[in-house]
Design goal:
Layout (H helix, E strand, L loop, with lengths): L6 H14 L7 H8 L13 H24 L5 H18 L1 H9 L6 H25 L6 H7 L2 H11 L6 H20 L8
Helix pairs in contact: 1-5, 3-4, 3-5, 3-6, 4-5, 4-6, 4-9, 8-9
Amino acid sequence: MVPVLSRREFQRRALELFKERSFSQVSVRELAAHIGISPGAVYHHVESKEAMLFEWLMELYQALLSHVDLIKTRRLTPAQRLTTLIDAHIQLYDHMTVHFKLAVMDANCLGAAMQARVEQLKLAYEAEFIKWVDQACHQPGGPLRECALTAILPMLNSLPAWLSPMIDNAQRRVIAKTIAEAVLHAINALPSNTSP
């Protein structure tokens, strides 16, 4: 008798495949073959491939927002709060690497309604992040800084992947956090007035 595949094991094997290949390039048949089940058996675990992607992206942004909520409960200065959030973001990357990849590369594979719900959580997280950047700054922002800040979260979402896989996770976190903080420092140094 073939052992029943648990939902957790199904998810683990599916994520393993999407770590190597783009979500949009994998058919249900290929997914089933990778997992070791029949194509019809996929639907015992998920409603659809799109629903699986939606679930993973919702998990990612809910995890990011839960870090925000947790940090809010601590007595920290604005600068400490921002540093803690950056550190939590980078640490989460180690545990949800494929989720981050899917968010960057494949969120557009969702239908309009699912994409809107994911986007709502994403924007809520980005708003908190940018608010904390503003609180940690010692000078008023300007249009240059606002434009530059829109690049910080996509950078954070991809930064650990830019580093060599030969570096261990602890070192990768230190390097990624140092780069992110240097970029934020540079953004904060942008002039608040763009006129000469």
